[in-house]
Amino acid sequence: MSAYGHQMEREFSGQSLLSRGDSGTEMGSRYITESGFYLSSFAATIFIAGLVTIGVLLVTLVVSLAVMVQSCESRSKGVVDSHRHCEILALHGELNGFKPDEVPPVCRSLSLQYIEGGGYARDLDFTMRMIESFFDTVSPSNDRVVLMDIDDILAPDPRSNEPSSCIKGATYLKKRRTLELYTKLQSRGWSLILLSRKPERQRNGTIQKLNFIGYSGWSSLMMRSDRETETSEYFSRQRKALKEEGNEIISVISSEMDALTGWSVGIHVFKLPNTWYES
């Protein structure tokens, strides 16, 4: 073979090798590329599965929270409705003189919560401060009188079988604060007339009890006759008689509605807070 032929063979062989090398490179590139594609697909599969799992968990969480919120709202609504129901019932109970055994159990429970939580003490304190603020704006005179209901302070303590001793504490608190108010008004020179629903035949015993617990020096003690039954009409007649005698009723203080309604209730009436156990 000539030198030229050997040279051509070597060039052809070199080109063939280069071509195979290029082919290998291309195959390697494709391999690497294809391998990278399969890895990305696997990772994407895991990523998507993770997203689906997280989505399911989030949906479950949202549903659980929604159920919890709805449950809480239902319970809250139930408590609010019970409070409103009992407040309306309490108002009508005071207007009509309901007895403790006529009060629904749920309202008795809420009444206990009202006392135990300090609500009753706060309301009583606020009312007493309102009364004192009012009397800071008016002055006593010979023809000006203040009427105070004494049946609360003469009422016996709650029965020992009541479900909580806090009721006794609330009753004691009202008696103490009422006596403090009575003493303060008396020291300022006010003529105090005591009102009671008790019949006239119990006058002597009532006076003894009043003196025993610290009440004295009142202007008069009004008690209904044995034949009178309607206390609201009785109080109205007594107030009307006082006005006809030339007295000016400045205020009536009581925790019961029958003493605060009707004729001639004065310039300002004050209702002391009450509990179902005192109705």
From TrEMBL:
Region spans: Disordered: 1-22
InterPro entries, alphabetized: Acid_phosphat_B-like (IPR005519), HAD_sf (IPR023214)
UniProt name for this protein: Acid phosphatase
UniProt xrefs under Pfam families: Acid_phosphat_B
UniProt superkingdom: Eukaryota
The entry's keywords: Membrane, Transmembrane, Transmembrane helix
Gene3D superfamilies in the cross-refs: HAD superfamily/HAD-like (3.40.50.1000)
Transmembrane segments: 37-67
Phylogenetic placement of the source organism: Eukaryota, Viridiplantae, Streptophyta, Embryophyta, Tracheophyta
